[in-house]
TrEMBL record, chain A:
Record keywords: Cell membrane, Membrane, Transmembrane, Transmembrane helix, Transport
Alphabetized Gene3D superfamilies for the sequence: MetI-like
Membrane-spanning parts: 12-33, 71-96, 108-129, 141-163, 184-209, 240-261
Name this protein carries in UniProt: Sorbitol/mannitol transport system permease protein
Membrane topology, as annotated: Multi-pass membrane protein
Pfam families associated with the record: BPD_transp_1
Origin superkingdom: Bacteria
GO biological process, one term: transmembrane transport
TrEMBL record, chain C:
Location of the ABC transmembrane type-1 domain: 57-266
Chain coiled-coil ranges: none
Alphabetical keyword list: Cell membrane, Membrane, Transmembrane, Transmembrane helix, Transport
Lineage: Bacteria, Pseudomonadati, Pseudomonadota, Alphaproteobacteria, Rhodobacterales
Any one cellular-component term (Gene Ontology): plasma membrane
Main location: membrane
Stated name of the protein: Sorbitol/mannitol transport system permease protein
UniProtKB/TrEMBL annotation, chains D, E:
Protein name stated in the entry: Multiple sugar transport system ATP-binding protein
InterPro entries: AAA+_ATPase (IPR003593), ABC_transporter-like_ATP-bd (IPR003439), ABC_transporter-like_CS (IPR017871), ABC_transpr_MalK-like (IPR015855), ABC_transpr_MalK/UgpC-like (IPR047641), Mo/tungstate-bd_C_term_dom (IPR008995), NA-bd_OB-fold (IPR012340), P-loop_NTPase (IPR027417)
Source organism of the structure: Sagittula marina
Pfam families assigned to the protein according to its UniProt record, in alphabetical order: ABC_tran (PF00005), TOBE_2 (PF08402)
Single GO cellular component term: ATP-binding cassette (ABC) transporter complex, substrate-binding subunit-containing
Classification via PROSITE patterns: ABC_TRANSPORTER_1, ABC_TRANSPORTER_2
EC number: 3.6.3.-
Amino acid sequence: MARAVTTQRKAINTALAWAIGLLIFFPILWTILTSFKTEATAIADPPVFFFFDWTLENYGVVMERSNYGKFLWNSIAIAGGSTLLGVIIAVPAAWSMAFVPGRRTKDILLWMLSTKMLPAVGVLYPIYLLFIKLGILDSKIGLIIVLMLINLPIIVWMLYTYFREIPGEILEAARMDGAGLKEEIIHVLTPMALPGIASTVLLNLILAWNEAFWTLNLTAAEAAPLTAFIASYSSPEGLFFAKLSAASTMAIAPILILGWFSQKQLVRGLTFGAVK
Amino acid sequence: ETLTIATVNNGDMIRMQGLTDDFTEKTGHDVEWVTLEENVLRQRVTTDITTKGGAFDVMTIGMYETPIWGANGWLVPLDDLSEEYDVDDILPAMAGGLSHDGTLYAAPFYGESSMIMYRTDLMEEAGLEMPEGSPTWSFIREAAAAMTDRDADINGICLRGKAGWGEGGALITAMSNSFGARWFDENWQPQFDTDAWNETLTFFTEMMNESGPAGYATNGFNENLSLFQQGKCGMWIDATVAASFVTNPDDSTVADSVGFALAPHKEGIDKNGNWLWAWALGIPAGTQKEEAAKAFVEWATSKDYIELVAENEGWANVPPGARTSLYENENYKDVPFAQMTLDSILSADPNNPTVDPVPYVGVQFAAIPEFAGIATDVSQEFSAVYAGQQSVEEALEKAQALTTDAMEAAGY
Amino acid sequence: MMAPAVVLLLGWMLVPLTMTLYFSFKKYLPLRGGDLGWVGFENYVRFVTSSAFWPSIQTTLVLVGGVLIITTVLGILLALLLDQPMWGQGPVRILVIAPFFVMPTVSALVWKNFFMDANYGLFSYLWEFFGAEPIQWLSQASMPSLVLIVSWQWLPFATLILLTAIQSLDSEQLEAAEMDGAPALKRFWFIILPHLSRAISVVILIQTIFLLGIFAEIFVTTGGAFGTKTLTYLIYQRVLESQNIGLGSAGGVYAIILANIVAIFLMRIVGKNLDN
Amino acid sequence: MGRIVLEKVVKRFGEAEVIPPLDLTIEDGEFTVFVGPSGCGKSTLLRLIAGLEDTTDGRIVIDGKDATGLPPAKRGLAMVFQSYALYPHMSVRKNIAFPMKMAGMDQAEQDRRIAKAAGALNLTDYLDRKPGQLSGGQRQRVAIGRAIVREPSAFLFDEPLSNLDAALRVGMRMEISELHKKLATTMVYVTHDQVEAMTMADKIVVLRAGHVEQVGSPLELYRTPRNTFVASFIGSPKMNLIEGPEAAKHDAHTIGIRPEHIDVSSESGLWSGVVGVAEHLGSDTFFHIHETGLAETITVRADGEVSLTHGDKIYLTPRPDVIHRFSADGLRMKDELAVA
Amino acid sequence: MGRIVLEKVVKRFGEAEVIPPLDLTIEDGEFTVFVGPSGCGKSTLLRLIAGLEDTTDGRIVIDGKDATGLPPAKRGLAMVFQSYALYPHMSVRKNIAFPMKMAGMDQAEQDRRIAKAAGALNLTDYLDRKPGQLSGGQRQRVAIGRAIVREPSAFLFDEPLSNLDAALRVGMRMEISELHKKLATTMVYVTHDQVEAMTMADKIVVLRAGHVEQVGSPLELYRTPRNTFVASFIGSPKMNLIEGPEAAKHDAHTIGIRPEHIDVSSESGLWSGVVGVAEHLGSDTFFHIHETGLAETITVRADGEVSLTHGDKIYLTPRPDVIHRFSADGLRMKDELAVA
Ligand SMILES: Nc1ncnc2c1ncn2[C@@H]1O[C@H](COP(=O)(O)OP(=O)(O)OP(=O)(O)O)[C@@H](O)[C@H]1O
Ligand SMILES: Nc1ncnc2c1ncn2[C@@H]1O[C@H](COP(=O)(O)OP(=O)(O)OP(=O)(O)O)[C@@H](O)[C@H]1O
Ligand SMILES: [Mg+2]
Ligand SMILES: [Mg+2]
């Protein structure tokens, strides 16, 4: 609303929003704090917040125990690869749905989404057998394909909604100006939908990064990403809160940082067509 | 060659990862580790072995899997190990549990039983004394009640209540043996409708409610370990390997006041409530790197490896429970819990675990493929009792029904 | 243009689906030698008649429904708050969306160990601090705990979509309502809420898809005990713990049926909302 | 019932003073139009009256009562927005009923008023449609209907026709005028289209940068614009403004002659020039004439029959009695002659 | 270079025949305007010419070559869209360069043409801005610039001014007319605004439901509309159409008199009525007159000085020489008298 808001009201909003924001963020904050504590401080009663002896020891232990770099690289490659591949396949599909819609377009779109409802555990066996046949067990490419397929419906849907907001006249103008289909997509459609594509990419990076079932079950040593890394920390013996925190922080930090830096894109683009 | 090895994330295995350079040096083979939490590991290797996926060259498996897999021919038989490896040095109970038809299918990395760990100081304060040999359950209950001081945050006894056949399920099954109960009769009929089971579960629940920690229904090994290390438990009946953790002054606040005793039994029953378990290394049949894998298994479960650990980390931290020679070693005799560990292991008999005869092998499990699934369900029903969500009778009734159903499904 | 995406997804759906169907009519026990022959509908009958089946359906619905209700209601309130003028809107938004970046495994571990642990959890400190008897979260309040964890993860997503939707509301409409004599609460009820209906249905659709497949959170926290066994988890137990592929596959088929019932129901709503 | 008085009303947005102290009286029953270029503060002024913006300073008195602090709904005014601001999820009937529902009016009375408004606005057949299924003009009428049923003491319109196409705009303009005749309620109407202002207003308020430049009836403004701003703003096509020697002849810094006050001939006249674009409307012809030596372009209106085209030489003669004179600061100078 | 001939062109969307077989010739260099009510097929026809829609049947010949199957880019035409359809992510320079880039033109030539077009369109200062930073009129010019650089044999415009506000529209209208004078290239221009059609066109094509109702110069259509549809579509305000006894007096089913062809008096005249709305524009006054017994409303135009208002009695006298007669099927009847 254009109406000026009193400073008092603004102050109340600010206080309330920050309180809630911090409350929501608290579990993450606590995890990060704990990762810098000793095991004893981590379970101290009463809990300590900021005033303790900060230590990097836990990170040292984790780094020594596992090859974090390799897990990280696998996560990046798998999340990035599947997203990229997904976008490449989804762009033409979304283009045709948005600009050459048929009577069945919406059905196809919803059908695509419904494929996401296949319970993963139910099909683990078939997929595992298939992967063995194809010789892509424990390979990045195998995971890239699976995660791409899992997220493809979401990518198509998101791109579809962004493309639909692009006026058809612009594409026609490009056609009049002599652009072929390829030029149309490269020079006009893609740059115009860039904010939307950016947010699609982001969302799918997050989803792929956090996917924990397939990445765990289809990998061994070669292609295991951070989800597998964290699986080796989920219940070690003895006191482990601080180490667990360090491992957790290391597993989520890259995507958290990426997310924070690009939250504007994400916020702007995350509509799923919920907004016309 | 590079070996891919699936392993569990416990302390001994992590330690081994740190020492692999020694293996590489000796053999020229590299090693890639896939370290997973126990449940994830089990599901992961099982999927791979049943589908012949070949993702791993060596797998860390337990006493439960080994005989089943060996029977299916999925594991490379370990019948041609080298002279110096000295197969016969492996404790017979361990070798027995890791064999099928007399052939060894996995080499034990370490073995464990369960025993009582208790706080000598608290016991003294309570004016009690731990008897020699196996105490009775009623003594334990009494002692627990005496040690409990809720204001000081001390619980008389900490036991696993967490759902999962390898967690609370293991404890209650081992305990039921000492109450004269069994899972199946000789015709594979589930036995949860017997008084023995009722008594076991009732006793456990009552004792834990009296003297156990809050929320014990979700406590497993790790939770109890922390509690004990924090000085919040008077007694803890759990894996013998825990002994080295609770006596390690770096982690444990009560390191110098821990005593050990054999697991308890019920009056008039000559089975103790202790279990038998080993983490062992097996080689999936069909691996391309059988030779290298064997070399690794030999290395990791050898006497030399024990020496290596002792050199680097001290005798208290060597993998226990696998080899007779360890217990004959002079250096190891100084370790306070060594003898009790050995005694506990020796007092468990996987082939004859219960008072009444049973058709299965395994102390705290039955080595049949269906057991893991059934026992998980059953232990969940039990945990619901611990959490106060159902009665003992309800739980047993459900356990009986679901076990019957599952056994039927499996074609018994 | 749609073809690659459609074919891929069709393959992704049909290949496992056919294999699942195939297995579901077999007695297939890998640990007993694998394929033990056709058994007709036996697996189906056994799966439904098992005592765990109906409770698992109920648990699934409670989990999905609970999370949906919490995330949409709180999401709307939070979106309304974040839409207000305040200082530091960007940082607050970062705090609020952060949980979305956290891997399910990690968030389950964090909640389980740092908050809901009966002995060391912050909640029990908090309860004790106020002189109350600590709650055994994961056993005595297992479903609420699970719903809480999952809601925490999905609240950011709902909030973001609803926020963009709120921001797209024509401010003149609100002013018109104000002129028409509608006080704030009625403006919310009669103007804002109907405007959000589309966004809400999108949130419900997308979240349902993901919530039906919730796995890691249960695996890490309760392992299916204390009445937290959803249909997905039950299938997991049948397939991986009991190693009964035939039975698990039959369960998978039921899950697909359930998913489709939910999907049809949802698509009706969303499909209608997507139209206008 | 609908006299609105603004007393030294000031509105600042942060540092920017959008409305400097401004006094204005809108009489009961009057149709008042605010005109002015984009950004001059028309909407802001209207919203101040509506209560949708808070005044920074000054008083707003409605029907003798101080309404400065009152919330919008309490001022007894109704507003029709530029975007119509219909509630898209409600049927036309519900849209119209909304303010009555909010006021808790009983159902029978609501129905009666809806029927009456729908009848008056030709909406009876559309009552059950959603706004999305209506044409622009129909939507506009629904917005008006929603305003009417409240029987407000005044209507406020913010550029209600700017989203409509030319033909519809003419029609709706008439409808609103007729509505005003019928209801005789005060109406305040914002537009930047001077034709709308001229044809609809009883009184026009010309604004520039928040200042009132002139207030008067359309013909007053047309005939005696107080300054060059009003002179060129009111009237279409624009008044020709001429500076230099020709103005000096009239003892003025600038003189203004409206296109319709210049006679055209292809043979002789006071001034001469070359036809640039000739717009033949049938009824009239507008010539845009270059190379007159007076101003860049002089626009004249001739009747439909004149058939000069691009590039033709043309002669112009202004009617002496309707020449407007302005001083160097742009203000109107006392008339030499009586205005016809 | 830009003669466009449509031969029996048909366009169907599914079942709906939007364009029934239609023949039309657009001469080289001509400024042709398509007018007609909304939905009559103007845009479709233009898009058929552009190649953005495929013809269902018939032939389109451009410059003597059959272009029916050619893709849009190959027809040598340029189009300016209603929404301008600028590429929002490209600077003005890049927008204008885009068609040349697509054609693979060398950089030097591109720069030359951009400079020339920008100079002609007053865009030189804005070349590095993005479209989002331009005003409506400037955007319009960029769209034209993008069309110009291709040196097309004809320009196609689809309601290019409908998104602009009234004042700008008048300005842009003139700019496009002047551009046409300068380039002398064929232009086909779609609008539903008859004022635009009248002021810009060399030739107007009036369409109704895909049919060509009349083709001719603006003044031809104004003076001799072929039927009542064209008669009421062309001219503003609309021609008054009168049926019944008064028409019978002229041996016609319907007679039409334009508002500007009726003389007004407050004392006496042929017909009488009561003033409804009086629109005082200053230069003119439009009276909407009721209760004449002829038609619901008669609109007349009087000059600015007449000061009758709402409710006054008024007398009307049509000029006999400009009465249009139509038969029962709406067609124009042979003139009784010469048309002035
Ligand atoms: N909420 C606001 N905050 C800051 N400045 C504002 C705000 N609303 C309006 N303004 C400024 O006040 C001035 C007047 O705006 P207003 O909307 O009243 O103009 P207007 O005459 O209605 O213009 P238009 O014809 O374009 O609608 C403008 O300079 C505008 O930028
Ligand atoms: N792609 C299409 N599919 C089906 N019908 C269409 C399509 N495009 C246009 N039409 C129909 O063809 C008719 C003519 O449309 P067109 O857009 O040419 O009208 P127009 O004269 O340009 O109208 P306006 O003045 O509103 O732009 C309309 O009835 C329209 O509904
Ligand atoms: Mg405005
Ligand atoms: Mg059109």
